[in-house]
Amino acid sequence: xxxxxxxxxxxxxxxxxxxxxxxxxxxxxxxxxxxxxxxxxxxxxxxxxxxxxxxxxxxxxxxxxxxxxxxxxxxxxxxxxxxxxxxxxxxxxxxxxxxxxxxxxxxxxxxxxxxxxxxxxxxxxxxxxxxxxxxxxxxxxxxxxxxxxxxxxxxxxxxxxxxxxxxxxxxxxxxxxxxxxxxxxxxxxxxxxxx
Length: 195
What we know:
Blueprint: H1 7-16, E1 21-25, H2 29-43, E2 46-51, E3 55-59, H3 101-110, E4 115-120, H4 129-142, E5 148-153, E6 166-168, H5 176-193
Parallel strand pairs: 1-5, 1-6, 2-4, 4-5
Antiparallel strand pairs: 2-3
């Protein structure tokens, strides 16, 4: 009998098999990002995060290759990332003109770097036909190598035209040991604030 695959192992398989779009339905955005960062660290891939407020920025601690000249497509539109952009405490610099979801997807479509791109709260834009079309275009291009979009949202309904490009990754609830750890961490944090 096969034991179920852990979420990190399943994510690594999806990335390595050139799955272009992975959907993680969760309210635990930090947990989802931690999982992506861990998987990409093991696969030596860069991670980028997108939010409508901040645009597309490099994530993590410099794991994987950076986005440099010749790796991002149109160099006139894309900012060159350096190790200092992802440094602790430093401000992260966004790829130029990527706060708009349509433009962010257009920029992603031109990128050739193998990386994982986490799009947070992207469900809010799925009713826009231009966003869906761009997402489909990016997904079709990303299916050629290890470039993956990870969409995180509390819930997301995929349009039928994207069904062949998407895999859903379920995040399991914490087990008893993890729940005990959460309780200990919470107690320690609360005890420290009330001394």
